[in-house]
Amino acid sequence: MTNQIRVGIIGLGVMGAGHARFLHEHVPGAKVSALFDIDSRRMASLSSELGTVALQASDPVELMDHPEVDAIIIASPDSLHVAQLRLAIASRKPTLCEKPMATSLEDSRLIASEIAAYEAAENRTMINFGFMRRFDPSYLEVRRLLATGEFGAPTFFRTITRNVSSMGVTTQGLFTNIAVHDFDIYRWLFNDEWLSVQSHYPKHSSLSPKDIADPLVITAFMKSGLMMVADIVAFNNYGYDARVEIVCEKGSIEIGINGDVITRANRVMGTHTGGVMAEDWMTRFKLSYIEELKAWISGIQTGVPNLDLANYADALAANEACALGVASI
Ligand SMILES: NC(=O)c1ccc[n+]([C@@H]2O[C@H](COP(=O)([O-])OP(=O)(O)OC[C@H]3O[C@@H](n4cnc5c(N)ncnc54)[C@H](O)[C@@H]3O)[C@@H](O)[C@H]2O)c1
Questions:
Q1: Is the pLDDT of residue 252 over 90?
Q2: Domains in the chain: boundaries
């Protein structure tokens, strides 16, 4: 195929390997041409699985500078994103970096200003961030339903993100690694900004590490007055559980665990599908990751960026809200 985008991926764990497989199987305009992970066995095994990899790099710079790499995915651990984003800026190649942009507010502001200067010099968007819920069919449907006006104005929303386990996460990480998705998606959905964030601590789960606040309940307000009640469970021990309910003046719109969108209005209610629960987010959000990758690749091919892809300003806004939450711990 002409104009095929050759992608190099850094970090080949759950997300990096997932992106590699999704590109390989579902995005005809892209080819995975280079890989880097400090775990060389992981790199070799993914390389032989894909059969398209020209380079198993020995460091991120070798991958980014390679002539067979047109675009970069950063899917390394959160704490490495800032340093690898700086390398991506130096490479001048389009980059999709997994969330979060950084793990501290200071670093987020610094790297955001560096990306802003870089993109101003290039006169185009060069760096996007992996807030894939923006491409999820259920959130898109909720956005469409809200716009119909049938449910009246939204007043508050409840959101749930419960992982089976979250090894190594800290209480701060419950914000920057998990709730960061909430802070992004509702800015996008409601076209609003975050004003305040507060942490609350339910009874601690005896099955969770003692040093993290698990479960964590977050309340937050947007500038319009919309309120969020989010619960984050790091170790739920029962199955990946991500849900939302938006309570409007004349009805309610809910996204269920399987991504069903059900509504309640005019004395009529929908029902959710049941079944076996997934172990993690890869099943629930598979379509979102694929659509996000397609949007990113197509933007590189056509030179017309997809405006639903999160940019540095979006990633910074999400981290600013995380910092309000962290300050309230
Ligand atoms: N958008 C989403 O829905 C979503 C979901 C999960 C994770 N993430 C993000 O994706 C990133 C990766 O998460 P994950 O779940 O795949 O983690 P993971 O632990 O499964 O994988 C991380 C990988 O990075 C590798 N690594 C470690 N140090 C490295 C280095 N110096 N250079 C290159 N690679 C290195 C590890 O060997 C491992 O293979 C994180 O930033 C995480 O927050 C995003």
A1: yes
A2: 5-132+288-311, 133-284+319-327
